[in-house]
């Protein structure tokens, strides 16, 4: 009987010395994967939901355009505007912007550029079609409408 | 006696280290916004000067017409529709035409969707309807190779096996969704 008692009293607590290492590993993972947003979004972004989503194959080929009502309506008015990088541009400026974005890519990949449109739900099709016409002119024909995933639960609630 | 004392405190108490790391971890977890690079993909037609304008006659039965006006009211195949979720099933039937209905597409290859909006149409409904139209095609592609629409969409194209499945599914049925330039009534 005394034999058993001795064994159990050997060590009762779990060594926690390695726990910080594990947590640090997780921490580094998240620190490395976190991408801090480099542009301030100046327009409202209530992205619509859709079901049939596809992923972008290569992220390096993507350029973003943000379209929506400006957040500061007193300064920029209530009409939907196009934001590229940090500034508002007119639809006529899209072609120049595309040319600049294409310049950032390697020469062989310039025609594979994908334009991702992040558009507010309340925007009208007029501005979208203006942009699309310009993109056609600029020969950036791969287009993606960024959307969020519509879940089955939300679908049932429709 | 003195020796044993120094021995006892020789280890740094690392128990709270985990707490500190946890705090940092939670901070990064909360601030991380995983970029959602997902969405509906389309390819725009080439610019007009590049292509010779050829008058191609498309038979009316092959066309599946969807139009939305500036009040977001839907017109599908000449009839008003309130619930856009029905479009998917209608389009699947239109493309495959299992009963050889003379009013639906001659063959899946000939089927064309004409999607027209107005400048005043809201973007949300445009996306919702486009979602339905693309969904119909993915469902057909998936069915052809024995996958669900979702499995077909998420095929990894860098994998040759998946690529083969993808090509097989799309074979002979082009995703012909023609997005017309919007009319400018609602502006």
Keywords:
heterodimer, A: 158 residues, alpha/beta, 5-stranded mixed beta sheet, 6 helices, 8 strands, elongated, B: 187 residues, 6 strands, 38% helix, membrane (chain B)
The overall pLDDT average of chain B reads 81
Radius of gyration of chain A: 25 Å
Strand content bin of chain A: 15-25%
Helix/strand/pairing category of chain A: alpha/beta
Class from secondary-structure proportions of chain B: alpha/beta
Helical stretch tally of chain B: 6
Task: Please summarize the sheet with the most strands of chain A.
Answer: 5 strands, mixed
**What is the level-2 CATH architecture name of the domain at 49-149 in chain A?**
2-Layer Sandwich
Helix segment tally of chain A: 6
Largest two-chain interface? A-B, 54 and 55 residues
Task: Name the strands of the widest sheet of chain B in spatial order.
Answer: 4-3-2-5-6
Q: Could you give the distance between the termini of chain A?
A: 69 Å
Descriptive overview:
- The complex is a heterodimer of chains A (158) and B (187).
- Helix content of chain A is 34%, strand content 20%.
- Chain A is α/β, with parallel strands linked by helices and 158 residues long.
- Chain A has a domain at 49-149: 2-Layer Sandwich (Nucleotidyltransferase, domain 5), CATH 3.30.420.
- Chain A has a five-stranded mixed β-sheet with strand order 5-4-3-6-7, covered by helices on one side.
- Chain A is elongated and about 80 Å long.
- Chain A starts with a helix and ends with a helix.
- Chain B is of the alpha/beta class.
- Chain B has helices spanning 2-8, 17-31, 87-96, 123-145, 149-153, 160-170, and strands spanning 38-43, 63-68, 74-76, 79-81, 112-116, 177-179.
- The longest helix of chain B is centred in the C-terminal third of the chain and has 23 residues, at 123-145.
- The N and C termini of chain B lie far apart (92 Å).
- The relative contact order of chain B is 0.13.
- Mean pLDDT of chain B is 81; it is low at 1-5.
- At the A-B interface, helix 2, strand 2, strand 6, helix 5 and strand 7 of A face helix 2, strand 1 and helix 4 of B.
């Amino acid at each position: 009987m005394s034999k058993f008692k001795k064994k159990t009293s050997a060590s009762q607590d779990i060594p926690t010395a390695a726990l910080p290492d594990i947590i640090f590993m997780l921490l580094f993972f998240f620190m490395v994967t976190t991408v801090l947003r480099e542009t301030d979004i100046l327009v409202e972004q209530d992205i619509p939901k859709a079901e049939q989503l596809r992923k972008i194959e290569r992220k390096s080929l993507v350029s973003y355009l943000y379209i929506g009502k400006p957040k500061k309506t007193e300064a920029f008015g209530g009409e939907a505007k196009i934001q590229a990088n940090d500034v508002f541009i007119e639809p006529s400026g899209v072609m120049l912007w595309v040319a600049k974005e294409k310049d950032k890519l390697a020469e062989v990949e310039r025609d594979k550029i994908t334009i991702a449109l992040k558009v507010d739900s309340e925007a009208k099709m007029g501005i979208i079609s203006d942009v699309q016409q310009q993109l056609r002119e600029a020969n950036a024909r791969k287009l993606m409408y960024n959307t969020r995933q519509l879940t089955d639960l939300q679908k049932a609630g429709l | 006696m003195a020796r044993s004392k120094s021995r006892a405190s020789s280890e740094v108490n690392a128990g709270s280290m985990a707490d500190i790391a946890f705090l940092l971890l939670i901070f990064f977890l909360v601030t991380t916004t995983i970029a959602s690079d997902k969405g509906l993909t389309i390819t725009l037609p080439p610019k007009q000067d590049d292509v010779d304008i050829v008058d191609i006659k498309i038979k009316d039965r092959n066309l599946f017409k969807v139009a939305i006006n500036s009040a977001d009211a839907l017109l599908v195949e000449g009839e008003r529709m309130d619930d856009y979720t029905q479009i998917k099933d209608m389009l699947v039937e239109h493309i495959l035409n299992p009963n050889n209905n003379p009013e639906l597409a001659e063959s899946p290859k000939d089927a064309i969707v004409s999607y027209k909006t107005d400048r005043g149409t809201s973007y949300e409904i445009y996306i919702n309807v486009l979602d339905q139209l693309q969904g119909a095609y993915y469902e057909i592609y998936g069915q052809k190779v024995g996958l669900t629409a979702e499995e077909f969409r998420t095929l990894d194209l860098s994998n040759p096996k998946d690529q083969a499945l993808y090509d097989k599914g799309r074979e002979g049925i082009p995703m012909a969704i023609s997005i017309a330039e919007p009319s400018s009534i609602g502006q």
